[in-house]
Write a structure and sequence with these properties.
With about 220 residues, the chain is mainly α. The chain has 2 domains: about 90 residues, no CATH class; about 110 residues, no CATH class. About 65% of the residues lie in helices and about 10% in strands. The longest helix is centred in the middle third of the chain and has 45 residues. About 20% of the residues are buried.
Length: about 220
């Protein structure tokens, strides 16, 4: 499944994921109910059947059951097209809250993708500049020249000089990575010395880096 997102409603925890699927088992448990009792209702079955026909998909496109593995992933999961309807069956205030979470997820998802696209473009620009600069100096450009620049950015963000799975980053993290890449390209264009560039990048990313290191130590996923 996509990246897990922990949520809290009135002091109780549930999980959704980055694609706006919700753990219905956790949702129902807050109200001493079970997803199966909602799923077997005639109106629910009719609604899901109609939804499947309209989208030309099977039921598992909207309802999934996960067993084993990560405890937070276990249980019945509902697509956002069913999550609010299910939440209404549980509690009306909770349903409104769920609707607000979905809206925020979709908005954040669009912003995340914007940063991801910008990152790809700025990386291409940075690599082209490195190649052109070295060519003008009569030097050959090899893969490690590109990699070293990427690694210093990664180290500024995470504290580790290793590759990053950009698709696993949160909105806040990928926004900072985007900003770091842009700042680095600007400093490269200004011929800023490497030590000064590195220090500026590390200072810029310090709050996010500290947060990610704490998460890593506590056993959470970056």
């Amino acid at each position: 499944m996509a990246k897990l997102i922990p949520l809290e409603y009135q002091g109780m925890s549930i999980h959704a994921n980055s694609e706006a699927w919700f753990n219905a088992t956790e949702m129902a448990a807050m109200f001493d109910k079970r997803p199966v009792d909602w799923l077997k209702q005639v109106d629910t079955e009719r609604y899901i059947d109609t939804l499947c026909k309209k989208n030309e998909v099977t039921k598992n496109h909207f309802v999934k059951t996960i067993k084993g593995g990560n405890t937070a992933k276990q249980g019945t999961w509902l697509h956002r097209k069913l999550a609010v309807r299910f939440a209404q069956w549980l509690d009306m205030d909770f349903a409104i809250w769920c609707d607000e979470q979905i809206e925020a997820m979709l908005t954040n998802g669009q912003t995340w993708q914007k940063h991801r696209t910008e990152l790809s473009s700025i990386t291409i620009l940075r690599n082209r500049f490195i190649e052109q600069k070295r060519t003008a100096e009569g030097k050959a450009t090899e893969s490690h020249h590109y990699i070293n620049e990427a690694l210093v950015i990664n180290e500024a963000l995470t504290g580790k000089r290793t590759a990053i799975d950009r698709n696993s980053l949160t909105l806040e993290q990928i926004a900072m990575l985007d900003k770091l890449e842009q700042e680095n390209v600007l400093m490269l264009l200004q011929n800023t010395p490497y030590p000064k560039r590195k220090q500026h990048l590390f200072d810029l990313a310090a709050p996010i880096r500290h947060q990610m290191q704490i998460t890593s130590i506590s056993g959470g996923a970056l």
